[in-house]
Amino acid sequence: MNAAVRILTALLPAALPGLANATEADASRTIDLSGNWVGIAAIVIFFLAYVFAMLEESTMLRKSKPMVLAASLIWALIAAVYVSGGLGEISGSAFRRSLEGYAELFLFILVSMTYLNAMEQRGVFDTLRIWLLSKGFGYRKLFWITGIQSFFLSSVCNNLTTALLMGAVLMAMAKNNRRFITIACVNVVVATNAGGSFSPFGDITTLLVWQKGVVPFVDFFTLFIPSVVNFLVPALIMQFWIPTGKPASAGKAVPLRRGASGIIILFLLTILTAVSFEHFLQLPPAAGMLAGLSYLKFYFYYLYRTRIRPSSTLPAQKDTDDLEGAEIPGDPGETKQFFDVFHNVAQLEWDTLLFFYGVMVSVGGLSFIGYGTLASQLLYTDLDPTVANLLVGIVSAFVDNGTIMYAVLTMQPALSEGQWLLVTLTAGCGGSLLAIGSAAGVGLLGQTRGLYNFVSHLKWAPVIALGYAASILVHFAMNARFF
User: Fold this and answer.
1) pLDDT digits (tens, 9 = 90+) for 203-225
2) Phi, psi at 60, each rounded to 5°
3) 35 or 287: which carries more pLDDT confidence?
4) Is the dihedral of CA 234, 235, 240, 245 positive or negative?
5) How far apart are CA 141 and CA 134, in angstroms?
6) pLDDT of residue 188
7) What is the helix, strand, coil percentage profile of the chain, to 5?
8) The predicted structure's pLDDT at residue 3
9) Residue 220 and residue 200: Cα distance in Å, rounded?
10) What is the rounded distance in angstroms from the CA atom of residue 217 to the CA atom of residue 69?
11) If you compute the radius of gyration of the chain from its CA atoms, what whole number of angstroms results?
12) Separation of CA 121 from chain center
């Protein structure tokens, strides 16, 4: 029986075996449910939820709703089997591990988005928009400027933060030109994923590989040229569909609000803190990001205290936290929200954050059911490593590439350094094939509020796939010594 038949046989078992052996399972082992009706039901639930998430634009149903429900149902099925067999503690511990992985991502994103909201509140993006427009750049030049900036920024900053930053700039510049926003957002997604693929700390996929020790630090940079090719090939084609002309006049320049420069500096310091926590202290990057959130809170407190005039009288009933959010006497332009970090937190794209929960926890459940082991057998035992790594890139278009890379590392396949570099490239760049394949794409889906959506990204999938294939060929040609 060939590999293709075995894949179909594994994914679509005809039998529905019973669960009588569940009670006999050792407490230190898990139950393989991949061939059971529970495993089949979990796959169906996950697939249907993803379909509804893709159809968000047409159904007007927020993408987080089906995914969170799917995660709950999948784990409810798993827990029911394990509890009935007296193994409830095992399933509970497995769920907590999935939840822990999401919590780290959630806290990282929360701080990143809070800083971006604070910068937007202080006029940073409006100022950047006006500066770009004052240069008289047309839509095509803006397309290239934002793409190149995204590529290099994502090599030192995570792809989600980069995409949200450039998305905010694009929306500020041309939110009334849907055609430009759509193509420019696709370009940003491709550029951020490509830029993060050659840097050890540019993306969660490269960070995981680096921390595992399978690729030395300096060898990641051998992927620079393949990553450039991955970005340039689709960009060179898409530029011909950029609308002519230029954005409307920016009007009178709007100065940065007080504290804007300080927030930018603190944001860079927060990223540095997160990288340092990971590299030197071996703590999750989220720990460093939360430290950075405290920087912002203390800075807002400083801004508030230094803006109050000596003659001002504060409301007697306000407590310390409320003082940070009080009205500023003598300055009607500064409302209480400008000095309240939690106001910025409230403005986060919660639908996107909950969507991430649904995806990560669902994938964790499917892996726990037994599909992770099955995938390892099919990919790195039955198939050639090159074919397997190419498939990993394609799968990362449907499931977050960080999750896919974590799953591959868990399988611990015996690969050459060239193959590890290949899977790093394919997992990082493969997420660009679909809008939901990477944190950058999902983040822009929420930020642009319909101007950029799943279907508009899908139209450019063949062009993105061409760049994906070209980058792989360049990797084989330039880095043959690693195989």
Assistant:
1) 777 777 776 778 877 788 899 99
2) 60, 25
3) 287
4) positive
5) 13
6) 92
7) 70, 0, 30
8) 37
9) 6
10) 40
11) 24
12) 23
* Of the candidates 268, 293, 282, the residue with the CA atom closest to the CA atom of residue 157: 268
Q: What is the DSSP string of 392-439?
A: HHHHTTTS-HHHHHHHHHHH-----HHHHHHHHHHHHHHTTSSGGGSH
User: Length of the chain in residues, anyone?
Assistant: 483
Q: Is the pLDDT of residue 199 over 70?
A: yes
Which tokens is 128 given?
């950047």
**Residue 253: predicted pLDDT:** 62
Whole-model pTM: value is 0.69
The residues, any chain, with a CB within 8 Å of residue 393's CB and separated by 6 or more, are 423, 425, 426, 427, 429, 430, 468
Q: Which two tokens stand for residue 122?
A: 């202080």
Amino acid identity of 172?
A: A
Give the start-end residues of each E strand in 210-346.
Answer: none
Structure confidence by residue, pLDDT tens digits, 9-18: 233 333 233 3
DSSP SS3 for 267: helix
Q: Could you read off the pLDDT of 423-435 as tens digits, one per residue?
A: 889 988 888 888 8
The count of other CB atoms within 10 Å of the CB of residue 23 is 10
Residue 400's Cα: distance from chain center in Å?
A: 7
Question: What are the φ and ψ backbone dihedral angles of 479, each rounded to 5 degrees?
Answer: -115, 35
For residue 37, the tally of other CB atoms under 10 A from its CB is 15
Is residue 445 within 8 A of residue 437, CB to CB? The reply is no
